[in-house]
Amino acid sequence: MRKVLGxxxxxxxxxxxxxxxxxxxxxxxxxxxxxxxxxxxxxAPSGDMNRVYLWGALMVLCAAAAAVTNIAANVMATRISRxxxxxxxxxxxxxxxYLSCRQADKFTIPSLNSRLTADTYNIHQMLDRxxxxxxxxxxxxxxxxxxxxxxxPALTMILVAxxxxxxxxxxxxxxxxxxxxDSVQQALDKMVRKVQENMTGVRVIKALSRxxxxxxxxxxxxxxxxxxxxxxxxxxxxxxxxxxxxxxxGLAVVIIVGAYRVxxxxxxxxxxxxxxSYFTMxxxxxxxxxxxxxxxxxxxxxxxxxxxxxxxxxxMEVIPGEREETDNHIEFRSVSFSYNKKIENLSxxxxxxxxxxxxxxxxxxxxxxxTVLNLLLRFxxxxxxxxxxxxxxxRSIPPGELRGKFxxxxxxxxxxxxxxxxxxxxxxxxxxxxxxxxxEQAQADFIADKEESFDxxxxxxxxNLSGGQKQRLLIARALAARPEILLLDDCSSALDYxxxxxxxxxxxxxxxxxxxVIIAQRVSSVMGADKIMVLEDxxxxxxxxxxxxxxxxxxxxxxxxxxxxxxx
Length: 568
Ligand code: ADP
Ligand code: MG
What we know:
The chain has 20 helices and ten strands. By secondary structure, it is α/β, with parallel strands linked by helices. Strands 6-7-8-3-9-10 form a six-stranded mixed β-sheet, with helices on both faces. A four-stranded antiparallel β-sheet has the order 2-1-4-5, covered by helices on one side. Strand 4 and strand 5 form a beta hairpin. The structure holds adenosine-5'-diphosphate and magnesium ion. The site of magnesium ion has 4 residues, from helix 11.
């Protein structure tokens, strides 16, 4: 909460001014019923019309002043809470973007998502309501009770008698109603997730004839939401009218008792009218205060969740290290790594590449191939061993500089809903010439066949392209800036053999001095590499050239024979 409050600090003068204005407006409003009672009881009976007009005008003036100040204060409050939340959301977004992959894994992506949206919204609501009601409700409550006592202590007793009933209902709402709405929200989240899954996975669901099953799943969630909504709805449907019933019963009793007291000459009718106003004011401000508490609890919980992210430490610190004299461009020295710090995902992996050399990595799914790239890019830090680029420890290279060295295509990489040109350019301000060349090198000749060529708009995720077309665009993106190191993670699996061969020829012809790490499923994609590493369960099962591995590594030989056999 401290950190989030820190965001409100620069606004303290504005908030104070807002509070003062609100305070003035509320006090004026508080006096209105009393003025009315004076007019009714003292001024009107005197028959002096000039005084009646004067007081009437005064009352209208006060009412107008109360309205104007309230509106002004509310506008200020909205602006202040909007500014605070905007800054908070901005900082949270930046922080989220800079979280290390390990931290993001720990928070989980959906949770980061809801912290950025739902939680900042809760903070906004809390700040807004607190400013609008935080000062108004207590003044009305305390001031109202005080004036009511002055007006008629006996009638105030009726007010006091209704309080426990009112408190019970409010307690019921906050204990039952609020959690009920929370559970509705959770069911809604589930439903949104399910719908999203269905939309994204619509093809595989159809292909595997899972439509019926998915429909059933959706029905279950829909039913859950329905049940919870019904429950929450009933609680609220009972509560609000009950509050009104209490209020109206109280008012009725005040009128009856008041009538007796007026007849008995113990009080005047104007006072009863004023008392009715205060009675309403006090009870509604009580309800308001209770709602503020709910908002406050929610806001504090959200603030805590946001602060967890904001105060997450800098994990990927740049630590000074000695540069070693070496002619190796990339070097892994006995690197071990585990995502969850329980089971090792890479164990004792070593390899080295000179400038311009290519490493091919091959191995079954889950053997740690992509993990090698994650470590090289320093998305995660190795637990043991060293990773060096041009003799420098990756941990000693500033992240911007480090990642600037690479051109990367990730497994399941992402295309944006933008033009083909922009998807290759990727905001790097590359020349049209560079983009054209990269597309050529990536064998993306299909672009020329498109009606609008490089200006063709892609659908979200590149859904209007085939798998192989997507892969070639992604490769073009990686090549376009002529990187020092090229990392390709399983990006030729959807290419036909001819295109794949063309790509390899273009790479060796035009990227001769680019060091490359290529992960592939096909032996043919890595066969020509200077070195090949076979990974099995995070361990190096073989390392050497194609010919060497055929001799020494039975696993490699097996894959080779199966694939070549299948081909021929
Ligand atoms: P592949 O060889 O198929 O590219 P990966 O390097 O992606 O394999 O994964 C190696 C192992 O690490 C797998 O068992 C996978 O489940 C696990 N793994 C990958 N990414 C994560 C992650 N972010 N958190 C936890 N485990 C992971
Ligand atoms: Mg992988």
